[in-house]
Design brief:
The chain is 73% helix and 0% strand. It is mostly helical.
């Protein structure tokens, strides 16, 4: 696995744009989640940051890629496609999986 392939994909405007669009979907889902959800306050605050457009899509794309071995493997299987072979559902799953860590990181600032 080449980190250069993963960096190229995270930096690609189309891939990071896909991550951004799907991140809005996840943010909206979090905004209407049960208030009893663990870390709800931090999750809602981070959702607001995303909805206001204050998040960096390339950084989130890099986090999505680095946190999900399936996505990394799909990118590595055909690096020239720059992640176009990664299904939206996989990106959405990865975003949901990292939502707590991102929201808690921003809460700590």
């Amino acid at each position: 696995m080449s980190a250069l392939d993963l960096i190229a994909t995270a930096s690609d405007a189309t891939f990071s744009g896909r991550v951004m669009m799907i991140q809005f979907k996840v943010a909206q889902n979090v905004a209407s989640e049960d208030p009893a959800t663990a870390h709800h306050t931090e999750r809602i605050n981070y959702s607001g940051k995303v909805i206001r457009g204050e998040e960096k899509p390339q950084v989130v794309a890099a986090h999505v890629i680095s946190s999900n071995p399936s996505i990394s493997a799909q990118i590595e299987s055909d690096p020239a496609r720059l992640g176009s072979n990664v299904p939206d559902g996989d990106i959405e799953f990865a975003l949901a999986s990292i939502w707590d860590s991102r929201s808690l990181a921003f809460a700590a600032v």
